[in-house]
Structure formats: structure tokens, C-alpha cells
Amino acid sequence: MTAAKQTIGVIGSLGDLGSQLVRRAKKYGFLVREFDIADRHTSVEELSDCEIIHVCAPLENFIVSPVRGLIILHDSVMDTSRRFNDQLDQKAAVVHLLMNSAQRAVVASDQPNAEAAASHLQQLGFNPISMPVDKHDRIIARSQAPLALLCDALLPELFQLDKEGLLTPSGETLAETLRSRTLIWTPATRRAILRNPQLRELISELSNILDQAQPPDK
Q1: CATH code of the domain in which 117 resides
Q2: Sign of torsion, CA 142 20 12 84?
Q3: Beta-carbon count within 10 A of 193 CB
Q4: d(Cα 119, Cα 127) in Å, to the nearest integer?
């Protein structure tokens, strides 16, 4: 069977990532079986004809039955996928599709089936790169996670200040940026992003910067 005739399953096909992956897979000639995020207990029979299974649903409280196909876990925090992989006897590949202009797909080099996952992603038109889980999560902690953190910490207050006309232009820009993110990120997505263990290092560095900026005690 050629790659173009492979059947892939997408769990979480109605979500943002899952729906984009479904469209891309069909574009590149794959046969696609779609599974809603609500179908938390997807049966072995339903997945039995899928050679590759993409799990695009949030992994919290999720169950994937053992199947014969290659399972690819998608989470922007690879540590979450790594922990979930324990339920699968460490048989799944761990991937993060950045969905950027470079078409980058990060594959965890220290998790199983990295080469097979990278080859498959190339067939989907992605530009895969491999790195260890912790290196990836450090990058994400410094690029994606700060916005999620600010959404939870500041957005309700910024809404109120905006109504009262108490925001500077930079404050208005911040509020609009965070507001636009909340239209894309669900609460579950933000929670997943904030589980990144590499965030603590960033918070520590920010705290040190703040300490250094304070005037000395008299």
C-alpha cells in the first residue's frame, strides 16, 4: 500500500488542530477517518483500519485503546504527551505541529517512533525537525506560554480598565492581543499550555530581572 493510500485516523477532528490536519491529509491523498473529541472511549474496532492515528484532542482524562497503528500524540507541551505515553507502554510518537509559515513539525527525538513520525509528516507537507522533549518545551515556555499566562492573569482586569478608558496605547495593544488569543484557545488549551514544567525557569528569570530593577533598600 502506498503512502497516498494509507488510512489515518484523527481523534479530535472538530478542533482547530484536528480540522486543519484532516483537510491537509485529504489534500495529500490520505484516506481519513474522523473522530470527535467527545468520543473519549474510541473503540479498537473503529481504529482498526487506521495505519496512523493522530491524537489531537486534549489528553487530560482521555483514553486511547491499544491499537496496531502508529499513534502520534499532539500537544504543544511535549512533557504532557510523554507522560500520557506511559499509558501506551511508550509506543507513541510525540509531535508538535507549529502551524507556522515554515511548516515546522517538531518530533521528540527521545520518544519512540520518531523517524516513522517524521517521514509521515513529510508526506503531509510538513518540514520536520527533531529535538528532545525538554528542549522543545523550553522553547514553547518562552514563545507560546507567556501569552497564555497573561490571559489568565490579566485579561479580566484589562477588560474592565478598557471600559473605563484607563489603558495606554500599549495597554490597548496588550488587551487586544490577549483577547484574540482567547478566541482561538479554549480554557483546556490554556491549562495544557500552563502545565509546561519549563515555565518555572522562565518565571524565576523574570523574578530576578524584577529584583535587579528595584531600588536598593535604605
Answers
A1: 3.40.50.720
A2: negative
A3: 24
A4: 10
pTM of the model: 0.89
Structural domain containing residue 166: 144-204
- Rounded-to-integer distance, Cα 78 and Cα 85, Å: 10
**Which one, of 2, 1, 30, 28, lies nearest residue 10 by Cα?**
30
Helices H / strands E in the chain, number of each = 9, 9
Work out the pLDDT band at 116, boundaries 50, 70, 90.
very high
Q: How confident is the model at residue 43 (pLDDT cuts 50, 70, 90)?
A: low
Please tell me the distance from the alpha carbon of residue 153 to that of residue 24, in angstroms, as a whole number.
35
Look at residue 60 and tell me if it is in a domain.
yes
- Does residue 188 belong to any structural domain of this protein? yes
Better pLDDT: 217 or 149: 149
210 inside domain = no
Q: What are the cell numbers at 205?
A: 528569570
Nearest to 29 by CA among 171, 101, 124, 139: 124
Select from 70, 102, 131 the last residue of a domain.
131
What crossing angle do the helices spanning 145-163 and 169-182 adopt, rounded to 10°? 120
User: Would 209 be classed as within a structural domain?
Assistant: no
The answer to whether residues 158 and 101 belong to one domain is no
4 pLDDT higher than 60: no
Cβ atoms of 25 and 10 closer than 8 Å: yes
Write down the residue that cell numbers 527525538 correspond to.
Answer: 109
C-alpha grid cell for residue 5?
493510500
